[in-house]
Each structure stands twice: as structure tokens, then as C-alpha cells.
Amino acid sequence: MPKYCITIFTFLLLIANPGLTEEHQDWSVEHWGKVTFGTRIFLDDPAHTGQKGNNFSLTFEPTIYSESAEGNSFTFTPFIMIDSVDSERTHVDIREAYYLTFGSLGESEWELRIGIDQVFWGTAESHNPVNVINQTDYVVHPNGESKLGQPMVHGTLAGDWGMLDAFVLPYYRPRTFPGIKGRFRSKPPVQNYRKQIYRGRNNIDLAARYSNSIGALDFGVSYFDGTSRDPRLERNNTGVIQNYDLIKQVGLDLQLTLGAFLGKAEWITREQITDENTRSRSHVSVLGGEYAFYGIFESEADLTLFAEWNHDTGGNSLLQDDLFFAARYSFNDILDTDITVALIDDRDFDTKTLNIEFNRRLSDSFSLTVEAFKFLEEDQGDVLSQQIVNDEYVALDLSFSY
Length: 402
Prior knowledge:
Elements: H1 3-16, E1 27-42, E2 55-68, E3 73-83, E4 91-105, E5 108-117, E6 150-159, E7 162-169, E8 205-214, E9 217-227, E10 232-236, E11 239-243, E12 246-258, E13 261-273, E14 279-293, E15 302-312, E16 321-330, E17 338-346, E18 352-361, E19 366-377, H2 383-386, E20 393-401
Antiparallel strand pairs: 1-2, 1-20, 2-3, 3-4, 4-5, 5-6, 6-7, 7-8, 8-9, 9-12, 10-11, 12-13, 13-14, 14-15, 15-16, 16-17, 17-18, 18-19, 19-20
């Protein structure tokens, strides 16, 4: 476990534990969590030397929540993954370990979180460029939606005028990448430096976001000044290494609700400063929406259609000029059954990928997710996609919640 995790967890435990404080308070304790057994069955032989085939994983994600009589609370959520093949995928992280207190300031309300937490910004379905607080835990899933816990001091002030969030982020987390035996990796694999020295590691990042609603429009304006969450990958004599530059980023996210239609947009402008002190500017945007058909075929089921366009002028993301189309069929039954089919069409190349996901509760405690990923079309000129072209798979996750 990283030293910063132990330090922060011990500090917060001293705050939250009534037996260790001078003034006794009544604290209630709750706990819940999830255990997931997963497997991926790959449809093709590995493309790179050292890679293995099918894998199995076991994931533990418990949560302990303690609350005082005054409403202050402490939340602790570790994440433990054990993989049968990839040693880099076997890892431990603290997703949450924070103390929460709150109060009033005039007609406004304030909250303060100190510790490790996860924060999500964004409205789009396919990609969230404004979501810059937490680092991606890429070894969990290649879609990039899993995030590492981020040490922070997070203050919130909310009132009729809107909501203002301010962040001090004192420690940087490098992105996780698969090891030599893992799938969804480059050739050669990206080196995972646990003690890597790079510019910005000890930099104190700052961020803020103002959000509000005006009629049917929900919006957020954000600012980030610190170390980029997106690594700049470079080859040297030993392989592919991660470089993290300092950035200044302004973001905007919008959602317009018009009945069954949701219009969505995200946009960022980013200034990037490299080790050589050279500066470059890029813009990333996602524009699209979703439309829901309720009670389709005179049943309880709903059908939601998605369409989005991703564009990146800097070429820092996989979705540089890509169209995203998806359909989600929700049965609205007591078992929360749904199925989603998603297509990504790369406009720079002829690459097209298909992803299908099926979710269903088996009981009050057990749930099942089945996912399939496949290349519908390949393009030899698409270097990034060619690295993982043999990694088509069918995955099954069986989760137990308690």
C-alpha cells in the first residue's frame, strides 16, 4: 500500500474514531461492498510476445461508513484486484478514505472533504474530456471508466446562486498499464514506474468548478492547473515510457433537457508544457445527445438512442475524430435487465468497433454482466488500434453485493 495512503488513512481514523478523540461522540457504523469474479475469453491468439490468453480475476470493493450524531462522517473504500495472468492487473488501491464535515455560511451550505476520493465531471456517454481530477485505472477495463483514488482537500459551497467546488490535489498518481503478459497493451508494453521521477509528481494541483441550472440547461465551468492525467508516451532503449506534462485546462460541460431528448456537450482547451518548456494548445470536444422512447412496443421497456461526435485537435486521446452510436434497451423489470449495443466509427481511418453489454440481477445479492468487444473493420494505418486488434473478447462478471 502506498505510504501516502497509510498516512492519510491513519490521520482520518484518528479523527473519525470516537475512542481516540478527547471529546466522546456517538458514531454509527455501516458496511457494504461487492465481490466480483470475472473472466475474459479472447477470440484470437495474442499478437505480442509474452502475452497470455484467457484470464480470471477476483475483485473486492468493501465500504465502511461511520457517521457521528452531528452528521460528520468517514468513508473508507479499498479496492483489491487479483488477476490470474497479469501481475500489473493484480493491485491494491484506496478508492475512498475521506472525512466529511459540513455547515452553513449565511444562506449557503458548505462541505469539506479531506482524504482520498473520486470525483466525476461530465455529461457525455462515450468520453468525458472535462473529467480531469482522478487518474485512469486502465488495467481494470480498457474503456477508461475505472479511476484511481485521488488525495485531495475538496471544499463545496452551494446556494441559490449555484455550486462552487474547489480542490487542492497534493499527490499525483501515474496511470496503470497492463504488464508484458496482459492484453490491451502496446509492443513493447508501457513501463509502470512505481518510483518514477517525472515533472509534476510533487506538484500541488489546483482545480475548481462552478455549476448551476438555468431552466432546462445544466452546465459546469471548470479550471485545472497541474499535472496532466494523460501520459505522453515515448519510446527509448528500454521500451515505452510515460511522460506527464504540466497543463492548464479550462472546461465546459452542458446538458439540455427537452422532454425525452437530452442534448450533451463537453469542451476543453488545454495548454501543455513539456520538460523542454515548450508549449502547445489543443482543444477536445464531444457533441451529441440521447433520445428515449418510453413504453416501446406497448410494454414496460424503454429504448434509448445515443449519438456523439468526438474531436481532439491535439491527438492525445483515442477518440480523435470518431462517431459514437449506441442503443440501450431497458426492460424495466424487477431484475433491472438491460442491454446496450455501441459502435465507434473512426473518421480518420476505416476502423470500426462494436461493444455489447448485458446486465441483469440474478437475486437481491447476485448480478451478472456479459460483455463482448469486436473489430468490425480494421485499418492497417491505424497504429493504435493495430496494437490491440487481436484482443477481441467475451467477458463475464458475476458480482455479489452485501
